[in-house]
């Protein structure tokens, strides 16, 4: 069972997310209301994943993100980190994932409403994968549209690109889009070719390649 420590300064939201995670089959070993308590809880329980709101007391700027970075530094390879945000903040998202190690995620809080998808994202981070909200990718695509050949991608290739950036494996993309494995492999090959990216077998490296390219 995936073990989780949860941090959010909103008691109602914290309790609600904890209940959803438990109902989805995960174990919430602690839920706390500020970054210091989060760091202490992670040290005490060594969970598989720490889920943290990006904006927390006292200033409600990036305290949650800084706590997430501290956890990754202290528990590298042992504790995954999934950051939740009310709004898309691409700078924070890239800052979190570009260290080069997996076990990291950045999602909008709206994604919590789809319990199965949210629980799946938590499990992927626990397994060392990367999960990036599709809206982050969409904003980066819009920024780069004038500078890279993104217009050459077909609608289906754009769908596949978004799922790659979410950290999904080839098989997961097949299941999501109801496509055969060879079809997905062909789409991915086309995407990497059109965007001039070197293919990478590891899921996290695929995410980093896509984000690095879109970031410019």
Can you offer a commentary on this structure?
With 216 residues, the protein is α/β, with parallel strands linked by helices. It has 10 helices and 6 strands; from the N terminus they run βαβαβαβαβαβααααα. It has helices spanning 11-23, 35-45, 63-74, 90-97, 115-126, 134-144, 155-165, 170-177, 181-194, 203-215, and strands at 3-7, 27-32, 49-53, 80-85, 104-108, 130-132. A 6-stranded parallel sheet has the order 2-1-3-4-5-6, with helices on both faces. Strand 4 (80-85), helix 4 and strand 5 (104-108) form a beta-alpha-beta unit.
Mean pLDDT: 86
The beta-strand count equals 6
Poorly predicted segments: none
The side-by-side strand order for the widest beta sheet comes to 2-1-3-4-5-6
Cα distance spanning the termini: 39 Å
Number of helices: 10
Radius of gyration from CA coordinates: 17 Å
Keywords, please?
single chain; 216 residues; alpha/beta; 6-stranded parallel beta sheet; 14% strand
